[in-house]
Every structure is written in structure tokens, then in C-alpha cells.
Amino acid sequence: MKINIQKREPDKNGLRPIRLVYYYGSKTSEDGSRTQKRSYEPLNLFLYNKPKNSVEREHNKTTLQKAEAIRAKRLLEMESAKHGLDDRTKLNASFFDYFDQITASKASGSRSNYSIWVSAGIHLHRYHRHAELTFEQIDKYFLEGFRHYLQHEAITKSDTGLSRNTACSYFNKIRAALNQAQRDRIIRDNPVEQVKSIKAERTQRTYLTLDEVKALAKAECRYDVLRRAFLFSCTTGLRWSDIHKLVWGEIELFAQGHYRIIFSQKKLKNSGTGLQYLDLPDSAVRLLNLENRGKPTERVFKGLRYDSYNNVALVQWAMRAGITKHVTFHAGRHTFAVNQLARGLDIYSLSRLLGHSELRTTEIYADILETRRTEAMRTFPDIFDESSD
Fold first, then answer.
1. Edge-to-edge, what's the strand order for the sheet holding 2-7?
2. Which of 205, 208, 274, 344 could form an S-S bond across to 212 if both were Cys, CB 3.0 to 4.6 Å?
């Protein structure tokens, strides 16, 4: 819509009234002609049609400035009203629907991550106890209440309370959804910034030693594709989701006898730096079965599934190798990280290899090597030892 200043025809005293004209576009009449849709606002201001002296000329100048100031004010008011209407519409939108949309987008990725999104949504419904939840209803006090519910009231299917890490994961999904809503300009002020998060506990991460990995390589596994995929994770650090979707077109021969992967890791992709080049060690190349290489769009580990049968097969395989640890597929990624640090790889390089968007995520693995830290302190050079001169 436009707003113009209109100088009307002079009256019998030679004065020209001024008004604002609001243009709302045009409409088509029954005969097919188009007419402008407009309205008017008198300003109770006038101009001398033919100023005769400096006083009248100064009056005209000042009056036009006043009219322009009013026009600018009206434009600002209308723009503010428009944004206010837009903001009100967005704030009245359903957060449940928005959260469900984000959750659905996670279905093609890691099943464990998708499951956490689904469970977080279930607990959000249980806490709110109403069929609808709008963005406007989510404020600091709502989030603090939800945090308290997760830590002290929420229960699992087995009628036990949530662990701190589970509560942390659920709360972080709500946090992630609100952060996305702010990026999508649905909300301007993010209430989650005013609420403390639930601090996660450090958990014991299962990993295998190199000797245990070698024992697995020699042991029999019910599913060959599971065997190759898990050992591939141990030698590359890739997540199950990245291994599952790996296609032959992403396997590149870049030097004689040397291969690498060109792909986008899920977590880094969201931060804008997802394109990765991963050099493959010889043991990882052997697990690819290059002699059976398929079309560029075909999956490398065809038939790999994430289900109870494969989970049981993985545990049984570990037992045949003489491993008593509770081994999950993600233990392969932990195995790669810990053994690379033990070999002397710096934490930043490991972070890049693992595809972490934040270095603090990688630092968790460094805590596992407590014995190396102790040894480093005990073997610190003696500054008073003169024999080293």
C-alpha cells in the first residue's frame, strides 16, 4: 500500500487543503474497467496557492514538512501493525505441529536420535495435558516447569524415573526446536535462553582395544554385512547412519591403491561445513569388498539393518571373540576415537575425523585415557636432575 500527500484545488481564498491518500490497489468493476481502491485522511493543513511574500512561502515550506512527517508516521504505524499481525499469527501457531514436523525430518537419520525426538514429544504432551500448545504459551516459566517434570515427575514404561542424561536429551530436543523456530523467524525472543539446561552426567563409554578388534575380525559373525560394517566403524569412526547410507559413488580412488570417501556427515551438514574427505586405511578398504563394487547410487553395505536381530548378533559375535563388554554398534565409533588418541592424534584432528561440530564433544574421549594423563604427569622431566644436562 502507498500513501501520498495530495494538494487539493484552492478555495475562494486561494488556500489549498492538504490530505493523505491511501492506495490499496485496484478492483475490476462489472463492465471490466479497473478502478483504484483508496481512502483519504484530511490533515487540517493548507498551502497558499500563490504565495505573495516570504512569510507565505515559509508557511508553505513548513506545512509540507509537517505533512511529510505525518505521512512517514502513518507508514511506520501501518508497517508496525503489519508485523504485529504477522507476529501474532506466528505466535498463535501450534508448537506441537512444528515439533512433529522436525521430528518427522529426523526419521531418515539415526534411529536412536529419532527415537529421542519422538519420546521428547510424548513427554511434552504429558506435561502440558492439553490438546494444543502455541508458541505464545511457551515462556520461561513453562520451560522451567517442563524441566522440573522431566527430572522429578516423568516416568518410563517400567514405571521408573528418567535418568539425568535421558531428561537432558529430552529437554535439549525442545531447546533445539525453539532455536530452529527462532532461525525460522517464528519467534523473536527465545525463552529457552532464560532457562538453565539439565546438566548431563559423564557416562562410561564402551570401547574395544586393538587386540579385541583383531579378535572380532577373526571370530564368526552371523551376518557378514554387520561384521564388515562394525569393523568399518572401528577403523573409520563413522556413525551407523553414515555407514548405512554410504554409496559407491562416494568411494574415490585418489592415488594408486589409496581410497577416500567424499560425503556429507549429518551433524556437520547443519553447521554448513558438512562436506568431508575421509582417507581410508587399508583395513577399511578390505572391508568394502571392492570386487563386488556396484553402481554409484547403490549402497556399499547393502542389507545392513538396525534391529533387535542385528543387535543380538553383535553381542553374540563379541562373546565368540572372548569379549565380555556390552558392545553396541556405536562402540565402534568410540573404539576408533580412543585408539586414535592413544596413538597420539591431537584432539582437534580427531574432532574433524569424527565430524563433531564442537570440540567439547570430542573432549569426552580424552577423559577415557585417564591412565595416559597419569603417566604423563609421573614422567614429567625432573627439573632438578643435573644428569640430563
1. 2-7, 15-28, 34-48
2. 208
Judged against a pLDDT cut of 50, whether residue 272 lies above it is answered with no
Which domains can be identified in the chain, with CATH numbers? 2-91 (no CATH), 95-194 (1.10.150), 210-375 (1.10.443.10)
Mean of pLDDT over the chain: 84
List the helix and strand counts (H, then E) for the chain.
15, 6
3 state SS of 135: helix
Residue identified by cell 543380538 is: 312
Taking the C-alpha atoms of residue 150 and residue 162, their distance in angstroms, rounded to an integer, is 7
Query: Cα separation of 2 and 40, whole Å?
Result: 12
Distance CA 266, CA 276 (A): 11
Strands (E), 167-235: none
Q: Where are the alpha helices (DSSP H) in 21-130?
A: 54-91, 95-105, 111-128
* pLDDT, tens digit, 9 for 90 and up, residues 127-174: 999 888 999 899 999 999 999 999 999 998 778 899 888 999 999 999
Between CA 217 and CA 343 the distance in angstroms is: 20
What is the sign, positive or negative, of the torsion defined by CA atoms of 191, 193, 194, 199? positive
